[in-house]
Amino acid sequence: MLPQFKKSQFISELKDKDSVRSPFVVKFSQLGVGKNGKPFLNVILMDSSGEIETRIWEDAPKHAGQMVRDAIVQVQGKVQSYQGRLQVVVSEIEMLREDQVTLSDLLPKLRLDPEALHQTLLQQISSMSDPFYRALAESVLRDDAEIVSCLKRAPAAKSMHHAYPGGLLEHIVSITRILDFMAQHYGERINRDLLFLGGFFHDIAKIWELTYERSTDYTTEGKLVGHLVMGVELMDRKIRELEAQEGRIPGVFPEHKKLLVKHLILAHHGKLEYGSPVVPQTLEALIVHYIDDLDSKVNQIGDFIAQDLAVGDWTALNKHHNRFFYKGDR
């Protein structure tokens, strides 16, 4: 049966002053109060082409119970430009069922081919020289079907960077490519295999920290434990499994190697105030932290510049970084 509500307008195609009547998925919803004391509903809608901020002023408290995360809604309203960004001012809302729409039109699409990205990881793993480190990487990224499947679909974050399906795998491959160059550049000062493990595993537990079937949010385990601790728990489990497999590794996994791998995960946020329980105390951990931070910022700011609508060579104010960015002829 054909969907009752066909998707004819996509977020990436919307322009200032356009009229909107189209189905979307609710990514985020929060009730607020305007300067005039009137309540309003701040909503982020999404479809397969992107996301857009939405304001609902009339009967906001009533609609707050409808516009919940992952709800499918038919929205009617008007597009307006505000502070260099488009938003939709909504006049009418209709709740929809999943069988009334083509769901693939409403959910984010992959940017890069996850199969090709995964093959790149496998090639990097095959080039590792340490048998313990290589076996650990294989056990997670080659042999564990659940982890591989989740990794090909998971975002790297809820909103900050690589926040789209497959974004985590894209981020991992991006930084391991840079880490490979860093290992060549610094030579014997750096353990290349450890750099790779830092790239592979620093965010690996985000596949369980986040939910991402429709919109992205945190799981209960993600909120209560977090991906750093969950990543270390994964390393402990995989190392025990390797030691239990006869002939899989040359012997008992060396304790100091186990500690170095755990340190890469626990220290990758760089500072205690950024959530790391320890600061980087090896060269490899320090490099992984800086490259992770760099790749995250390039993705985040690049998307901000690409989506900016301000007229001229400069973007609107980026509130997260508290600065304007030069667009030039981009």
Please outline what is shown here:
The protein is 39% helix and 18% strand.
Q: How is this structure best described in words?
A:
By secondary structure, this protein is of the alpha+beta class. It folds into 2 domains: 11-105, Beta Barrel (OB fold (Dihydrolipoamide Acetyltransferase, E2P)); 114-304, Hypothetical protein af1432 (Orthogonal Bundle). The chain has 11 helices and 7 strands. The longest helix has 25 residues, at 283-307. The chain is elongated. The mean pLDDT is 90.
What descriptive keywords fit this protein?
two-stranded antiparallel sheet; OB fold (Dihydrolipoamide Acetyltransferase, E2P); single chain; 5-stranded mixed barrel; 18% strand; alpha+beta; 330 residues; elongated; Hypothetical protein af1432; 2 domains; 7 strands
